[in-house]
Design brief:
Helices cover about 15% and strands about 40% of the residues. It is α+β, with helices and mostly antiparallel strands.
């Protein structure tokens, strides 16, 4: 089932680019928490703690016990904004959840096993869909969805409709392909063109160069003539 982790947060009263920039310089990230029946509240969290959390847990399917000035609320990370060049996190959105409230989350798909078409036929496993969206109560959020692919042969595929998720409704289109076994590429060898050789070509290639000789009378007439 889903993992719950803890993260400390502080309420903040200041807004704008200037204070947010100063906050990042001291290792804090601007954030906001909102939810059904709750007014948005501006916060700040430790950049180091957030980096550690995201390095070890799936962002969209991890419940966070967010202690705002010591008062914990259950939240999910709804949005992560990053610097376009440095990729540092510049802002976070948290969404407060309640135990009896169904929520929409995105859950990663993990493929299990080595496909028959890869092991025995030299094919390639191509995963084209890596997550699906589901509607589920917080206590039933799966950390990830496992899909068995061992029996797949060349040309076979698995689709969203092949997933089985207890206590949840899959919102992603069931006809979408999750993975396929692609056949190995066969490189065609171009054979050299061998055609019949014409007799005239053989004669031309083997014939000696023709020696053009002048008539005998002309050869005799062409000597130097004495003057006088």
């Amino acid at each position: 089932m889903i993992t719950t982790v803890s993260l400390a947060a502080q309420h903040r009263d200041t807004g704008g680019k200037g204070p947010a920039r100063q906050m990042r310089m001291v290792g804090r990230i601007p954030a906001v928490v909102y939810g059904r029946g709750r007014d948005p509240e501006s916060l700040s969290v430790s950049a180091a703690e957030v980096d550690k959390l995201l390095a070890t847990h799936a962002r969209a399917s991890t419940i966070i016990s967010l202690a705002i000035d010591g008062d914990p609320v259950k939240v999910l990370i709804r949005d992560v904004q990053r610097h376009p060049l440095r990729r540092d996190i510049t802002h976070l959105d948290f969404y407060e959840i309640h135990e009896g409230e169904s929520i929409t989350v995105t859950v990663p798909i993990h493929l299990e096993g080595s496909p028959d078409g890869v092991r025995n036929a030299g094919g390639t496993l191509d995963q084209v869909l890596r997550e699906v969206q589901i509607a589920v109560l917080p206590r039933h959020i799966p950390e990830r969805l496992e899909l068995e692919v061992t029996a797949l042969t060349i040309g076979q595929s698995l689709h969203v409709r092949d997933l089985v998720i207890e206590n949840a409704n899959i919102l992603t289109d069931g006809e979408m392909t999750i993975c396929s076994i692609i056949p190995p590429r066969v490189e065609e060898e171009v054979a050299p063109v061998e055609g019949p050789v014409e007799e005239e070509e053989l004669e031309d290639e083997s014939a000696e160069p023709e020696l053009i000789r002048k008539p005998k009378g002309e050869e005799e007439d062409e000597g130097p003539k004495a003057e006088g």
